[in-house]
Amino acid sequence: MDKKRVLVCGAGGFIGGFLVKRLKDEGYWVRGVDLKYHEFEKSKADDFVIGDLRDQQVCKKISEDVKFDELYQLAADMGGAGFVFTGDNDAAILHNSATINLNMLEQAKETGIKKVFYSSSACIYPEYNQTKPDNPGLPEDCAYPANPDSEYGWEKLFSEHLYLAYNRNYGMEIHIARYHNIFGPLGTWQGGREKAPAALSRKIAQVKDGGEIEIWGDGEQTRSFLYIDACIEGTWRLMHSGFTGPVNIGSDEKVSINGLAKMISDIAGKKITIKHIEGPLGVRGRNSDNKLIKEKLGWAPDYSLKQGLKKTYPWIAEQVQQN
């Protein structure tokens, strides 16, 4: 029997690279597509196409010569707070990500790909539910009335509706995950698109014991961060469940940004001082509520933040040394 064939859009990215490896381990034939190759390792995909998914002709080319069983759509114009919350990239974020989703979902319909995964985001949740650092968690049904705090969140919410409409109107099997701050080795760690664990790991790796690092705001804003292995496991389980979603794939272990910096500095074996400065912050408090994923998948992430940082910090420290 032939191997199942899978198309992974965004395969040159952080999560996409790990997903390709998991799919290969599970015995799939994988085609990866991205604007770029993976920055830190050679892709494990059987075939890797460099292409711009905003171009309909590229979308046709990558999906019409092979009969694909599944599509994983992770491609997006994205980054951390320094990219999403400045306002400078709003038009590009909305246009680029929406165009990719419109193109690829229609192409999946036209070529008969029946099973589709879409990576949404915790950024879809309303700002009014995230005004306090002690946020108890965001259940999936609190997304409405809608009021995301960024254009990135608005585009993700629109695209959730797009995928669900194709599910209703065309009978496509859709699975939607709302990712919450995924981190780990082999991810972006500098340049403005990196997330908080990578940015703080870089800053701490760059200073000597007793040195000072900068943090935006007062550092009391809270988030939860999910290690990449748990993200991939949750994605795999969702795709092999009967549940459409959307469902949170995130940790419910909340931490302040000051607390995150302390955790990383302890792992690094360094004493640090923190200088709080102005900068883009996003919401005041965000945490994953995992009741629904436990109910629907019989599983929830249990990989601790400290476990993940113990794997992530040494890798970033090595990158800092090499650069």
Main sheet: which strands, in order across?
3-2-1-4-5-6-11
Task: Specify the structural class.
Answer: alpha/beta
Instruction: Identify the CATH class of the largest domain.
Output: Alpha Beta
In the CATH scheme, what's the topology name of the largest domain?
A: Rossmann fold
Give helix and strand order, one letter per element, not per position: EHEEHEHHEHEEHEEEHEEHEHH
From the 3D coordinates, which CATH architecture of the largest domain would you assign? Answer: 3-Layer(aba) Sandwich
Strand content: 15-25%
Give the low-confidence spans: none
* Gyration radius, rounded: 19 Å
Shape: globular
What does the average pLDDT come to? Answer: 95
Q: Supply the number of helical segments.
A: 10
Largest sheet: 7 strands, parallel
Share of residues in helices: 25-40%
How many discrete domains?
Answer: 2
Number of strands: 13
The name of the CATH superfamily of the largest domain reads NAD(P)-binding Rossmann-like Domain
Distance between the termini: 47 Å
